[in-house]
Amino acid sequence: MKKLIIFLLISFLFTACAETCYNPPQPIVFEFVNSNDENLITNGTLTQYSIKEENQTAIQLTKTSDDKVLLENVGAYNGTKNYTFSSNLKNFEFSIESSEFNSGCDGYQINKLTFTGIAIDVKDEKGHYKIVFQ
């Protein structure tokens, strides 16, 4: 009986002290290029750009050292949200479909990105999306 009580006490301590963990969705990175595969930020063609969520909230963007654009804090929700990309060159819309998952830690995963726009082509480059402005 004493061993059972000690076992239950130790089990309770380990479960009570367990830390909660959270896995954010994978980052989304855009690279903007022309039909010759030249980076439009690097060559100075794309100078102004922004992204807004469907409720007109601006999305924080970070330019990386290799002139790609990292979208901050997107995908941490269940469902689909629509976004608008605006720039001095082109505008387009895209949506992000995300869902919650639990594999030992709580978190979200991005299931699908859908792009719509005139004269753009999007290539999934395994780690970032190459957006070709024609």
Q: What value does the average pLDDT take? A: 85
| SSE pattern | HEEEEEEEEEE
Number of helices: 1
* Biggest sheet strand line-up: 1-8-7-6-3
Which consecutive residue ranges, at least 5 long each, have pLDDT under 50?
Answer: 1-9, 11-18
Percent of residues in β-strands? 35-45%
Separation, N- and C-terminal Cα atoms: 76 Å
Q: What's the total number of strands?
A: 10
Radius of gyration: 21 Å
Q: From the helix content, strand content and strand pairing, which structural class follows?
A: mainly beta
Q: What is the percent of helical residues?
A: 10-25%
The largest sheet, given as strand count, sense and whether it forms a barrel, is: 5 strands, mixed
Question: Which descriptor suits the 3D outline?
Answer: globular
In short:
The chain is mainly β and 134 residues long.
Q: How would you portray this structure in words?
A:
The chain is mainly beta and 134 residues long. The chain has one helix and ten strands, in the order αββββββββββ. The strands form two sheets. It has a five-stranded mixed β-sheet, with no helix packed on it. A five-stranded mixed β-sheet has the order 4-5-2-10-9, with no helix packed on it. A hairpin with a 3-residue loop joins strand 7 and strand 8. The termini are far apart. The model is unreliable at 1-9 and 11-18 (pLDDT under 50).
